[in-house]
Amino acid sequence: MPQLNPNPWFLIMLASWLIFLLMMQPKLLSLTSANSPSTKTNPASKTTPWTWPWT
């Protein structure tokens, strides 16, 4: 069964991970998000119980 032979596929997987770690990751990490997280706290909302018409 050739698909169980790790010789050609291991090198392809290793090369793709090295490309991702060395080239793609710094480019992705340098991007800034458009919406920065805010420190504003949301006020607690007042909830009222539901009045069931049949009780």
UniProtKB/TrEMBL annotation:
Residues 33-55 are annotated as: Disordered. GO terms for cellular component: mitochondrial membrane; proton-transporting ATP synthase complex. One of its GO terms (biological process) is proton motive force-driven ATP synthesis. Keywords: ATP synthesis, CF(0), Hydrogen ion transport, Ion transport, Membrane, Mitochondrion, Signal, Transmembrane, Transmembrane helix, Transport. It is a single-pass membrane protein. Residues 1-30 form the signal peptide. GO terms for molecular function: proton transmembrane transporter activity. The keyword Membrane applies. It comes from the Eukaryota. InterPro entries: ATP8_metazoa, ATPase_protein_8. It is found in: Mitochondrion membrane. Pfam families: ATP-synt_8. Its main location: mitochondrion. The keyword Heme does not apply. Belongs to the ATPase protein 8 family. This is ATP synthase complex subunit 8.
